[in-house]
Design a protein that fits this description.
The structure holds two protein chains of two kinds. By secondary structure, chain A is an all-alpha fold. Chain A has 25 helices and four strands. Helices cover 70% and strands 2% of the residues of chain A. In chain B, helix 3 (33-59) crosses helix 14 (312-334) and helix 4 (64-95) packs parallel to helix 9 (213-235). The chains are: A mainly alpha, B mainly alpha.
Chain lengths: 552, 375
C-alpha cells in the first residue's frame, strides 16, 4: 500500500526529442483540453458568469487558463528567445486545434450528437464575428498568450511569482465571487470595499486590477522558503503558541455556524458529515489498507436504523428519541460491518474492492426492492424522521446539527488516533505493508482486519444517523455508489492514513464545489479528475500521514 | 508380483470413507472460528437455494416455454458478460490489476456505435444490408472503445507500472468517473434508443419455442469473437508475447519482448471486445445511457473471476454461467422462497454470486489457484 515498492526492474525508456516536439505535443494537448471543456458543457455553464463585468466571461477565462497552463509546461526551460518561441508555437497549435471546433457546426445533425453544439455556442465562440475572423483571432490570441507565458517564464523568480500569483488571485476571486459578494454584503462597514471591487455580480475592471496587484504584493512579500517556512514557525513556536493556535481553531469551529447564514451552515454540516465518514474509511483504507467501495452500505444501515427507530411513520418499530437511536444505529452498523467483514476480509486488494462494492450494491437493491417494502418502505423510503430534541428544545436547524457532527468528529478523532497509536495501529500498519509478512510475525490477519472494518462501519453508521435526522427522510436513492467513491476521493485528497487529512479533504471536495455553484453537475467530473491528479502528482495527499516508524 | 503390489496398495491407501473422515478431521483441526462461520454460511445458502429450487419446480409456476426464454435470455446476456470479461481477464493476466474503467469504456463504445448506427440507418443500409450495417456499427464502437482503452492505460496504469500500490486502482476509479460524467456532458442525461434492426426483428422457432433472432445473433457474435480471441492468444506472435508477459514481465523483457507495447495492445484488444459487447447489449436492450457501463463492467468482472481470472476460456464459461444464473435465479430460487417481486432482485443474485465466488472460490471454475502474491 505504500507508494514506493518497486515490483519490476523493467523500465520505460525516455526518448530524446527535437526541441520543437515538446511544445507541439503540449499545444495539441491543451487545445484538446479546451475542445473538451467546450463539448462537455463546462464552457456553457461558466459562460453565464463573468470574471470581469462585461469584459471577460468566466468561460473564456477557463479556455485561456487551459492555454496558459499548457504554455507554462511548454516553456519550462531554455533562454528567453527559445521560451518565447516555444510558447508561441504551443499557443498557436492549441488555438489551431481549438479552431477545429468551428468545423463542427457544418456537420449535419451535430446537435443530435453533442447536446451543447447549438448555433448560439458557436456564435459565442467566435464573438459573433463570423468563423474565419473568430478563428484568426483565436490563433492570434493563442500565439500572443503563448509568447507572453514564455516571456514571463524567463523572468527572475520574484517578478515571475508576482505575475503568476496575481493571475491565480484573479481566478480565485472570480471563481468565488458569488460567495465573496454575499460575505461582503453581510458587513455594512465593508460596503465601500464591495462597491469598489465588485460591480453587480462580477469584478469591476478596477476591482480586477486591485485583486491582481494584491496577489502580486502577497507574492512579493512571501518568504524565501515558501509556505514551508511559515507553517512550522506557527506550529512549532513553543507549546504556548501551539496551544493558542489550537484554541483559535476551536473558536473558529465552534463559532463559525453562528456567524454565517443558513446556507453556509448547511455546507459546514455537509463537510462535517463527509469528514466523519472519511475518518471511518480512513480506519479501513488508511490504517489497515482495506479498499472498501461498499462503505455506503453502513451509512445506509445507520440512516435506516435511525429512521425505523424514531420516525413518526407506520413502518417505525419504536418511538425513541434521536439520542437513544444514535448509539443503536452505530451498534447496528458496526455489527453489520462485523458480519459483512467475516466472509469478505479473506480476499484482498482489487478483489476486496469488488467484493465490498457488490455488498454495497446488494444492500441498495434490497432496500429499494418490493420484497422488503413492508419493513423498509421500498423506493418511497421512510419519511417524518424526528429531529434531535432534549431539554425542551429541538435541534432542527443545520447549525444546530452541525454541533452534533462536531461532537461525533471529536469522538471519532480521539478513537482513531488512539487506535492508530496503540499496538493495534502497529498491527494494522503491518497488515497494510504486507499481509504475508504480518502473518509471519504472528498478527491475526482476520481479527485485525475485522476490527478495522467494524470501527470504520461504526463511524459510517454515525454519519448515516446524522444524515437521516438532517434530511428528515431516507430513500434508497440517497445511498448510491457515488457516496462511497466521494468518500474515497476525500480520503485520497486529504491523505490516506491522516486524520486531519480526512477533514481537510472533505472541506476541499465537498465544501469548495458547494461554494462554486456554477459547476453544478460537473463537480463529480472534477472529483474524478482530482482523483487522477492526486494519484499522479501527490499520492500521499494534502496531509502526509506520519509513517509508523516515526511514531516511536 | 503385480498382485502383491495391489494388495500392499490396498492396505496402505485407506478406503474412501476413511479418507473422507481423515480429511474432515484434518479440516476441523485447522479450522478457525471464521472457517466454521463460513461453513455455516455455505450450508445455509445451499439449503436455501435447494429449497427454493425444489419449491419452484414442485409448484410448477413457470411453463417450459418460460424456462426456455429465461435460458435464451441468460445466454444472450451471458455472451455479453463474457465479452466484457475477456477484457478484464486479459488485463488482469498481464498486470494483475483490475481495469475499473472497463465498463465505462464499453459505454463509450455503445455511444459511438449508436451514432454510427443512426447514420447507417439514415442511408437505409439497415434494411438493404443488415449484416454489413451491423458489422460497421460494431467496428465504430470497437474503434472508439479501443482508443479510449488506450487512453485509460496511459493515464491510469502506465505511470504505475513499477510500483505495487493502490494508486492504479484509485486512478482507474477516477478515470471511470471522468468517462461517465464526460459521456453525460457530451450526450446529455437522457437515454438514447438504438435504431431497430428491422430485418433481424421477430423470432425463430426452436423446438416449438420462439427465440428472438437478435438474441441468437448476439450469442453467435459473442462466440465467434471469443473463438477469434482464443486463436489470437494461442496461435499468434502477439498472443505468445502476451502469455510471456503475463508469466513474468522481467523475463519477457529480457527475451526482447517490448513489454510496454504488449500491455498497450492488450488494453486495445480488451477495449475493442468491450465495444462490440456494448453494441450487442444495445441491440438487445435498445436503451443506452451514460451510466449503463459501470455495473455491466462489474458483472463482467464477476464473470471473469467465476471462470478463473487470467484464463480466456474461463471468462467465456464464466460469462455464460453468470448470465444463466442471473436470468433463471430469481424465478428458480427466489420465487420458490416466497420472496415478493423476485425479478427486481436480479442484481442481488448476480452480485451475491460474485461475492460468493470471490470468497469461496477465488480461483474460479477453471483457474489454477493464484499464489497469494499474485492475487
Amino acid at each position: 500500500m505504500s507508494f514506493e515498492i518497486v515490483t519490476s526492474s523493467y523500465r520505460l525508456r525516455t526518448r530524446r526529442r527535437a526541441p520543437w516536439q515538446a511544445p507541439l505535443r503540449i499545444g495539441l494537448y491543451s487545445g484538446a483540453a479546451a475542445v473538451y471543456l467546450v463539448l462537455v458543457g463546462l464552457f456553457n455553464a461558466l459562460e453565464q458568469q463573468s470574471l470581469i463585468e462585461e469584459l471577460f466571461p468566466l468561460g473564456q477565462a477557463a479556455l485561456a487558463a487551459c492555454l496558459v497552463v499548457g504554455c507554462f509546461f511548454a516553456t519550462r526551460e531554455g533562454r528567453l528567445a527559445t521560451r518565447i518561441a516555444s510558447g508561441a508555437l504551443a499557443g498557436t497549435v492549441a488555438a489551431l486545434v481549438f479552431d477545429l471546433l468551428f468545423l463542427l457546426q457544418y456537420v449535419p445533425d451535430i446537435r443530435q450528437v453533442f447536446i451543447v453544439a447549438a448555433p448560439r455556442l458557436f456564435r459565442e465562440l467566435n464573438w459573433g464575428l463570423g468563423d474565419p475572423i473568430g478563428a484568426a483571432i483565436a490563433v492570434a490570441a493563442g500565439a500572443l498568450i503563448g509568447a507572453t507565458t514564455g516571456a514571463v517564464a524567463a523572468l527572475p523568480l520574484r517578478p515571475r511569482r508576482a505575475v503568476w500569483s496575481s493571475l491565480i488571485a484573479l481566478v480565485a476571486v472570480g471563481a468565488f465571487e458569488e460567495v465573496l459578494i454575499v460575505a461582503l454584503q453581510g458587513a455594512s462597514a465593508l460596503k465601500p470595499l464591495r462597491r469598489l471591487i465588485f460591480a453587480y455580480d462580477a469584478l469591476s475592471p478596477i476591482g480586477a486590477l486591485l485583486v491582481a496587484v494584491a496577489g502580486a504584493a502577497v507574492a512579493a512579500s512571501w518568504p524565501r522558503g515558501g509556505v514551508k517556512t511559515l507553517l512550522p514557525a506557527a506550529l512549532q513556536g513553543g507549546p504556548h503558541r501551539r496551544r493558542a493556535l489550537i484554541v483559535l481553531l476551536w473558536a473558529a469551529l465552534l463559532l463559525s455556524p453562528l456567524i454565517v447564514n443558513a446556507y453556509y451552515a448547511q455546507v459546514l454540516l455537509l463537510i462535517g458529515l463527509y469528514g466523519l465518514m472519511a475518518m471511518g474509511l480512513n480506519v479501513e483504507l488508511g490504517f489497515a489498507g482495506l479498499v472498501d467501495l461498499g462503505f455506503v452500505a453502513f451509512y445506509a444501515i445507520g440512516a435506516y436504523t435511525v429512521a425505523l427507530l424514531t420516525s413518526n411513520n407506520p413502518l417505525a418499530i419504536a418511538d425513541l428519541s434521536f439520542w437513544a437511536a444514535l448509539p443503536l444505529a452505530i451498534a447496528t452498523a458496526a455489527t453489520a460491518g462485523f458480519i459483512f467483514g467475516l466472509p469478505v476480509l479473506r480476499v484482498r486488494g482489487d478483489y476486496l474492492a469488488v467484493a465490498t462494492l457488490s455488498l454495497g450494491e446488494i444492500v441498495r437493491v434490497l432496500v429499494s426492492s418490493d420484497a422488503l417494502k413492508h419493513t423498509l418502505g421500498g423506493a418511497q423510503g421512510i419519511i417524518e424522521i424526528a429531529k434531535p430534541a432534549g431539554f425542551g428544545l429541538t435541534l432542527g436547524q443545520p447549525w444546530q446539527i452541525y454541533y452534533i457532527v462536531l461532537a461525533l468528529i471529536v469522538v471519532a478523532w480521539v478513537v482513531s488516533r488512539n487506535l492508530d497509536r496503540s499496538y493495534i495501529g502497529r498491527a494494522w500498519a503491518a497488515v497494510k505493508g504486507d499481509e504475508d509478512v504480518a502473518q509471519t510475525f504472528g498478527i491475526d490477519l482476520v481479527g485485525y482486519k475485522l476490527l478495522s472494518y467494524t470501527v470504520g462501519a461504526a463511524f459510517a453508521g454515525a454519519g448515516g444517523a446524522v444524515f437521516a435526522t438532517m434530511i428528515g427522510s431516507v430513500y434508497p436513492a440517497s445511498f448510491q455508489l457515488l457516496i462511497s467513491i466521494n468518500v474515497l476521493a476525500i480520503l485520497v485528497v486529504g491523505g490516506l492514513g491522516s486524520i486531519p487529512g480526512a477533514v481537510l479533504g472533505a472541506a476541499a471536495l465537498i465544501g469548495v464545489p458547494e461554494l462554486l455553484r456554477e459547476f453544478g453537475e460537473f463537480r463529480y467530473l472534477l472529483t474524478g479528475i482530482v482523483l487522477i491528479l492526486m494519484m499522479r502528482l501527490r499520492p500521499q495527499g494534502l496531509v502526509r500521514a506520519r509513517s509508523p516508524a516515526s511514531r516511536a | 508380483m503385480a498382485e502383491e503390489i495391489g494388495a500392499a496398495a490396498a492396505t496402505i491407501v485407506p478406503s474412501l470413507p476413511t479418507r473422507l473422515r481423515q480429511r474432515w478431521a484434518d479440516w476441523y483441526r485447522r479450522a478457525t472460528w471464521v472457517d466454521l462461520f463460513l461453513a455455516v454460511v455455505r450450508i445455509v445458502i445451499l439449503v436455501a437455494v435447494c429449497a427454493g429450487v425444489l419449491n419452484t419446480l414442485v409448484s410448477q409456476r413457470y411453463s417450459a416455454t418460460e424456462w426456455f426464454s429465461f435460458i435464451a435470455f441468460g445466454l444472450t446476456i451471458g455472451g455479453i458478460y463474457a465479452l466484457i470479461a475477456l477484457g478484464y481477464t486479459m488485463v488482469y493476466g498481464i498486470l494483475r490489476m483490475i481495469n475499473f474503467a472497463h465498463g465505462d469504456v464499453m459505454a463509450a463504445g455503445t455511444f459511438a456505435g449508436y451514432f454510427a448506427a443512426t447514420v447507417i440507418d439514415r442511408h437505409g443500409l439497415i434494411d438493404s444490408a443488415p449484416l454489413a450495417a451491423l458489422v460497421g456499427t460494431m467496428i465504430a464502437a470497437a474503434a472508439c472503445s479501443a482508443l479510449l482503452s488506450l487512453f485509460v492505460e496511459r493515464i491510469a496504469y502506465r505511470p504505475f507500472l513499477h510500483v505495487r500500490s493502490l494508486a492504479p486502482l484509485i486512478c482507474a476509479i477516477g478515470v471511470s468517473f471522468v468517462i461517465e460524467y464526460s459521456l453525460r456532458g457530451f450526450f446529455g442525461t437522457g437515454n438514447r434508443a438504438y435504431p431497430d434492426w428491422r430485418p433481424f426483428e421477430g423470432s425463430i422457432d426452436i423446438a416449438g419455442v420462439g427465440v428472438p433472432k437478435l438474441q441468437l445473433l448476439s450469442i453467435t457474435a459473442a462466440i465467434v469473437l471469443m473463438l477469434a480471441l482464443h486463436v489470437v492468444v494461442n496461435h499468434t506472435r502477439l498472443g505468445k508475447a502476451m502469455r510471456a508477459v503475463s508469466e513474468d514481465r522481467d523475463a519477457a523483457a529480457l527475451c526482447g519482448i517490448d513489454v510496454g507495447k504488449v500491455i498497450t495492445l492488450t488494453f486495445v484488444l480488451g477495449g475493442a471486445l468491450a465495444g462490440v459487447a456494448g453494441v450487442l447489449y444495445a441491440l438487445v436492450f435498445k436503451q443506452i445511457a451514460a451510466f449503463t457501463g459501470f455495473f455491466l463492467g462489474i458483472k463482467g468482472f464477476g464473470a471473469a473471476v467465476l471462470g478463473g481470472i487470467g484464463n480466456v476460456p474461463g471468462a467465456m464459461i464464466g460469462g455464460f454461467v453468470l448470465g444463466l444464473v442471473e436470468s433463471t435465479g430469481p424465478a428458480l430460487f427466489l420465487d420458490g422462497l416466497g420472496i415478493a417481486a423476485p425479478f427486481q432482485l436480479r442484481d442481488v443474485v448476480a452480485f451475491s454470486m460474485l461475492v460468493m465466488v470471490l470468497v469461496f472460490r477465488p480461483q474460479g471454475l477453471l483457474g489454477e489457484r493464484l499464489a497469494a502474491k499474485r492475487a
